[in-house]
Amino acid sequence: MTAAGRTGISARRARRRRHNHPVFKPTVEDIAVAAGVSTATVSRVLNKPDSVSQFLRDKVRAEVTRLGYLPSGAARALASNRSHTAGAVIPTLNNAIFATAVAAFEAALTNNGYTMLVTVSSYDHIHEIAHVRRLIERGVDALMLVGLDHHDDVWRLIESSKCPAVAIWGHQDNPPIPCLGFDNAAATCGVVDHLVGLGHRRVGMVAGVTEGNDRARARRQGVEETLRRHGLVCTSRRFVEKPYSHQDGRDGLSELLAHGEPPTAIVCGNDVLAMGVMFEARDRGLSIPGDLSVVGFDNLPITEHLSPALTTIDVPSAAIGTATAEAILHHLADGTPIASRVFPAPFLLRQTTAAPA
Amino acid sequence: MTAAGRTGISARRARRRRHNHPVFKPTVEDIAVAAGVSTATVSRVLNKPDSVSQFLRDKVRAEVTRLGYLPSGAARALASNRSHTAGAVIPTLNNAIFATAVAAFEAALTNNGYTMLVTVSSYDHIHEIAHVRRLIERGVDALMLVGLDHHDDVWRLIESSKCPAVAIWGHQDNPPIPCLGFDNAAATCGVVDHLVGLGHRRVGMVAGVTEGNDRARARRQGVEETLRRHGLVCTSRRFVEKPYSHQDGRDGLSELLAHGEPPTAIVCGNDVLAMGVMFEARDRGLSIPGDLSVVGFDNLPITEHLSPALTTIDVPSAAIGTATAEAILHHLADGTPIASRVFPAPFLLRQTTAAPA
DNA sequence: ACTTGCGATGTAAGCGCTTACATCATACTA
DNA sequence: TAGTATGATGTAAGCGCTTACATCGCAAGT
Could you list the residue range(s) of the whole structural domain that residue A50 is in? Predict the structure, then answer.
């Protein structure tokens, strides 16, 4: 495959150029020939321009634009073992807070020549396995997952592929992979302290679904433990778990109100549930915070405009997305290990809490 | 490169297996050897299992799972000229309506073995060029764009790469690429008819930024033309254009109210702006719809829970995302041409409109 | 003048797959 | 029984890049 091989290639290519004309996609070889250099030089111009003399560099670049050359990502990935892509597996995009994180992640990647592959797990750990497998097959250089609750196969896949992975949104000591998130439990803990400080004794919660969701679980635990610490009742009937919609929030409040001795304050697993609670309260003629205190979690943009403005926890979603991308990029660039990081998730005191009636 | 070549490969691989042990990633060849078949058979088992005898099929599959084999997407893409990925270029992910469409698009792709690459253009046509180029370089089998306003270079890139592309959200006769969307102008036209029918003579608009955005432009034109058709005043001071935030909506209302003869009804370019208008009206003590009628566009989930519930246009975002993926998948599977499609975008009459005071 | 060293360039061997084509049994046809 | 489709399998040539290594020229060191 020396002279004969090359000729074969060129002959075929020349043929394609003439007959198969619908699509002529120039390759490195075409550029090399056009610029009168070797393919290695073309590759160098594209990848480490500094190692090529200015003269040839300009010549090659001219041909690249003249012929409209687009390098083949597949060939590049195959030869270099780097795809310049990163994958993100998220529970849902229909949650503004994740969408924001993903958008920030994508922006940082794009600014550095990377492209993002996204896949939505719908909170399903079994599906997630297939998604992670697929992303690894696609050759992503790194992976972003949400939380630390994952199927064993996911960990195995990450382990055996040696694909750098980082978990966001959560926080844990000695996590299996680096973790960029915040302390979900501490956040709700602070909320309860505040509520108890206002005089509330009957605190309820409309939590997110905690099964298979370490963030939701931590938030619920934060509430439970703090309630106990204050010596307050913390029965299961004060806790309902709901998926993610305004209607779920409404339903949550209805259920909490159905029992005798209903809570005077409700902590919510996220802002959407909190808004649902607020809507339902409004429709039932309950005034907030007069009759009922409500606290959310996420600080969605709309919450500050509500009347009353929702007291909530500010989740630094964009910062996490950006930081994750940067950590990955650094790691990929020079091997810098990815360090776990705990972001502050400050309590935003607004207008939906007050002393109980 | 016959016997010698192969031996060379095997030798290298064997060496890697022993020394370089940190990561041993089996290849088709490893599977082939382990199963006692040729690499072609392994490939067939993976891609068209029906063409292989059950006996060998099972044998190969057993080795695949035993060795934890993950095919290399890059090699596969390079050899087959199909990456099994599709790209989406969207203006922003921080708009629930796009996030929903993207999520639906992704779900349909994933269900069919495809993976989605996403890139956010931030409404910047120049940036978009680079994004489209990159996606094409990555070898996406198809592309989803939003709207039909794009830089010439984008069209050129699509044209010369022969990458199937579809535009969503918009509508146009004889579009350059298939278009799955709805009639933005007709929608706001209907809105104005309704408002005028209620007796409004002074109708204003808080539009989205129309420059470089055919959807926003069509919505605004729908309002303008209908106003003229009814013989009503349609001056530029009745129109303000704003980006996408609640605050922008508030600002929009403030500006519209700053002039003498302020509008009695306001059509908004999207629901976020509409909510901003509602918040500002509330803070100014204006009652809706008593003092001011407001209409949104998108039908975000929250809008029906607002008080009063927002009258708006229902944008079939999930349906568009799903349909786009399916059309692309069909096209990729058997060449079925992608047909343009106009989705209904029904007017949802709720509680924010009434006859003027 | 004669190494040395170094930066710029070329050579060619892969990267891990897919697939056209060749081969070979096997089962039909007549 | 010879001839021929037919289906299953193997062979090996690429797909379009990157990169280790070889080569070459030239300035600097002795």
Answer: 3-71
